[in-house]
Amino acid sequence: MKYQVMMGILFTLLKNRRATAQELAARFDISPRSVYRYIEEMTVAGIPIDVARGQYGGIYISDAYKLPRGFLTRTEYERAVAAMRAMDSEWQDEALASAIRKLTSQMKSERQDEAVTGEILVDSGTWGKESRFSDKLLLLERAVKAREALEIDYVDRGGGRTHRVILPHLLVYKQNIWYIFAFCRKRDAFRLFKVGRIRTAFSTGETFERLPFTRADIPLSFWKDDEKCVEARFALTDEAVPFAEEWLGIEAIYEKDGKKYAEATLPDDSALIGKILSAGAGFTVLSPASLAERVRRAAERIAAAYADRG
Fold it and tell me: Number of H helices and number of E strands within the chain?
């Protein structure tokens, strides 16, 4: 019975996107405390369900979330549908009836996680939850085209979470990262949000008139003051050249006295050291010396972490 109720809660959220604990408790004849316990178990299982208080409070799930490709085997699909039909015969619940139709449809045909926009094909999957990221990107694309406001939960680099209403104007792709350029009502200004840091997003049903902006308004450099960037010079082996070309651009690479080098102005943030280390030993920092020292210390810490493993 527990897992039938959990499945019922999940598909209720997939249909309605938002509910209160009291509504779910009344629908499935359980206590609000049990609702929160089941929600916690589903969250641990990787389903992006959030609980929020305040004006936009309640239990909700992102509009971008769908059951991932391969989530269930055919046998599991059939048994899940049978269990839900048994529940529906008892509760006569429209959300369950809708879920049965959707689950049956997904069982027959599961789609690929690729986004097609005009004449551009984008395999937007990440190395992590590729289907979830692709669905989120498609939701944002639809919102830009339809000029529809979205509610999002955004997680910053420090782990802080904020709930916002945004007016999406433009999708931006730079250095292998997707961003959404949107007017943020919380800040009353345009902001550039990393798509990967949007935990949940769902449509409000509200449409808006596009606000005027120019290319100069979009912070495409992503860093502006000298304190947050570094003029770096690297020595490259032949094996490291493809990495440098893809990261820094071919124009950043030059040859001198038969050796290859690269120069670039880079954001001096916590991700820089990891990016340099990922290139391997053939990608060496020549200057500034402070950056080379930070890379050396980071490499020593990594080596020490594996030293005791034989």
Answer: 9, 14
Q: Are 170 and 257 found together in one domain?
A: no
- Domain span holding position 29: 2-108
In what order do the strands lie in the sheet containing 49-52?
Answer: 18-19, 58-61, 49-52
Q: CA angle, 46 as apex, 39 and 195 as ends, to 5°? A: 110
What residues pair up with 25 in beta bridges, in sequence order? Answer: none
Distance CA 28, CA 36 (A): 13
Nearest to 49 by CA among 33, 65, 34: 65
Cβ pair 176, 192 in contact under 8 A:
no
Q: Give the model confidence (pLDDT) of 203-241 as tens digits.
A: 888 999 999 988 888 887 655 444 478 899 999 999 999
Summarised one tens digit per residue, pLDDT across range 159-182 is: 788 999 999 999 988 766 789 999
Within 71-129, where are the H helices?
Answer: 74-91, 94-108
Alpha carbons 13 and 263: distance in angstroms, whole number: 50
Q: What is the pTM of this model?
A: 0.53
Query: What's the pLDDT tens digit per position in 15-39?
Result: 777 888 889 999 888 999 999 999 8
Residues 6+ apart with CB under 8 A from 146: 207
**Nearest to residue 271, comparing CAs of 170, 196, 191, 172?**
196
Tally of domains within the chain: 3
Which among 45, 76, 108 is the end of a domain? 108
